[in-house]
Amino acid sequence: MSEPGIGENPASDREPIGQARDLPLDSHLHTDLSPDSEVPIDDYAAEAVARGIAEIAITDHLDFDPRYPAYAYADFSTRERSVRTAADRWADRVAIRFGCELTYERRHEGDIRDHLADHRYDFTIGSVHVGPDSPYGNEHVASFAEGRGLVEIVRPYFEEVRAAALSGLFDTIGHVDFVKRYVHPYVTPAQFAAAPELYEPILRALVESGTGLEVNTSGLRQSPRETYPAGPIVARFHDLGGRAVTAGSDAHQADAFAFGLEEGYGVAAGAGFRTLSFRRGAEGLRIPIPDRFDT
CB–CB of 170/133 below 8 Å? Predict the structure, then answer.
């Protein structure tokens, strides 16, 4: 699960990356209908207009374990009404889509499947988070990492992500190696980069199920200081036949809106992608990546 503030640093503490301008889409945003955000939806809409972001997806959290903070935090009708009415208010200035970030756990796959069968979203992200039973929580991670190598440390997380990809339930899988944030500094981004084979089962599962890969830029404002995942992994996904990629800031604070998206688009373009795949319900849509990212 995401923790309050999701590790976002104040703007004054950040590397000079900044909030992007003049892009077609930020596909991952959390409002005050997520337990770890206090941002009204209209604040994001105003930011989008000011920064020239043409379209945004509101993807508030949905958990299926009663111990998680987004379990029954806001019901479907409340979340949908919030987004749809905002979309009407801002229709002449920015497109607002109704999405959801669903926490994936194999033990709750049936519940997730049932929910998605009964509720229609424009866009769905399936993500593995760090919950009460996870070895990656702040009180557990040091002892869990001690004496273990990289493969053993990341296996529980990566196996769950692979299962999420194979499920075929989601339009995209969010922040596939978000665990980098939790195991740092016991495992560094350089160690992940040196073991790209660890990602192979996840990437092949994404290709097999036709599920998209998210380039999540929240890692640029967190301890890894790189996207989830980094460029070489996105390139390998493309080489394996992956054709669906998305890009989102995963903002939980207003000043994180579109943060690092310029770099995220660059990662996607550098990997060989020319479009973002963004699904609205049953209708697939491909959004061109701006020409300035041509390599």
Answer: no
Where are the extended beta strands (E) located within 32-182? 55-58, 61-62, 95-103, 123-127, 172-173
> What pLDDT is stored for residue 282 in this prediction?
53
Token representation of residue 133 = 């039973």
Cβ neighbours for 15, distance < 8 A, ≥ 6 positions apart:
220, 221, 225
End-to-end, the C-alpha distance of the chain in Å comes to 36
| DSSP at 253 | S
Residues 97 and 276: their CA atoms lie apart, in Å, by 15
Asked if 231 and 270 touch (Cβ cutoff 8 Å), the reply is yes
Q: Are 160 and 112 contacting, i.e. CB atoms less than 8 angstroms apart?
A: no
The beta strand positions in 171-240, using DSSP E, are 172-173, 212-216
Whether the full predicted model's pTM is greater than 0.70, yes or no, is yes
Torsion angles phi and psi, residue 57, rounded to 5 = -115, 125
The rounded Cα 112 to chain-centroid distance in angstroms is 17
CA distances from 3 to 34, 36, 78, 149, 251 (A): 11, 6, 22, 26, 13
DSSP structure class, residue 62: E
Residue 16, amino acid:
P
Strand partners, 278: 285
Q: Which residue has the higher pLDDT, 7 or 292?
A: 292
- Residue 167: its H or E element: helix 150-167
pLDDT tens by residue, 128-178: 999 999 999 988 999 999 999 999 999 999 999 999 999 999 999 999 999
